[in-house]
Amino acid sequence: MAFTAKDVANLRQKTGAGMMECKNALTEANGNIEKAGELLRQKGLVAAAKKAEKAALEGIVASKISNDKKTGAILEINTQTDFVAKNELFVELSRTILDCILTNKSKSIDNLLNIKAGGASISDLISSRIATIGENIQIRRYELYELNSDEGIIGTYIHPVGNKIGVLVKLTASSNATSAELEQLARDIAMHIAAAQPQAEYIDKTKIPQDIIENEKRIELGKEDLANKPKEIAEKIVKGRLDKILAQRCLLDQPYIKDQTITIEKLIKDKSKQLNTDIRVAQFIRYNVGETFEKSSNDSQKTTVGIS
Question: How confident is the model at residue 231 (pLDDT cuts 50, 70, 90)?
Fold first, then answer.
């Protein structure tokens, strides 16, 4: 008995199994949805759907840079326990997903889930890993950086203890300065972003939205120690405080973690002079596993496989 795309969709909705698994089950069951559902249960794929309802709060951050250093991607992929996050099948899945992101330059998770790798879609690969490993797996987020026509380099750093923190950084240069020194600089800056406290949120003060500056100013002006001071004096004190607060949140103003006597801006200027080029930080992003989640003691948070 033949079956339609609607039958496949219905079986997927009913069981939570991957598209290819549902197609294969319907083929084996001659189009009988009930029998196909039983086949999926026998193969453990319906159990995978139930596991997909459990919160995925652990996981890893992974990244990959193209051979020419012009494209890079960073990925957060989650599972339920730290034990599974260290499983080689889980880590291998992250590598496959990163390869797909770089090769296809996918811009959204929905698009990424439909991309095929080795004959199966990323969505189906995730479902298969859930069935094998026994825990929910979720692509939480990813970012793709490209240099396109710009000169420069893309670098990354993944903190080796648990692979929980990762950074992707894009440096541009005024000339073709792709070299071991520039690659090391990108890695050093990425490592700084991963480790620095307070965390860098902006490249420099020009990138801070005005509403955030005004809000910080309002908070400082409202502090009790300024209540009885003349307005002009209070404004000067607030300006000094504000400069310090905002500098802590700007990458270029932060003291370099490997040498606290210089800032990141000075580090970049020195390297620019050494390499005879003008190096600038164009973009950066820092991932910390689960930073947007709140752990629940009763495991009540629900997630959907492959959907961020």
Answer: confident
Amino acid at 200: A
Question: Strands 259-263 and 116-117: what pairing?
Answer: unpaired
| Element (DSSP H or E) covering residue 55 | none
The class of domain 58-202+251-288 in CATH terms is alpha beta
How far is Cα 277 from Cα 173, in angstroms, rounded to an integer? 6
CA 156 – CA 74 distance, rounded (Å) = 8
Per-position b or e across 237-254, b if 16+ CB within 10 A of its CB? bbeebbeebbebbbbbbb
Q: CB-based contacts of 257: which residues, under 8 Å, 6+ apart?
A: 191, 192, 195, 196
CATH architecture of the domain with range 209-248: Orthogonal Bundle (1.10)
β-partners of residue 173 are 151
pLDDT at residue 207 above 70? yes
115 half-sphere exposure, CB direction, 13 A CA radius: 19
CA separation for the pair 79, 15 (Å, rounded): 20
Residue 63 in this model has a pLDDT that exceeds 60? yes
Query: Cis peptide leading into 230, omega within 30 of 0?
Result: no
Q: What percent of the chain has pLDDT over 70?
A: 88
The pTM for the full model equals 0.75
HSE-CB of 45 using CA atoms within 13 angstroms? 26
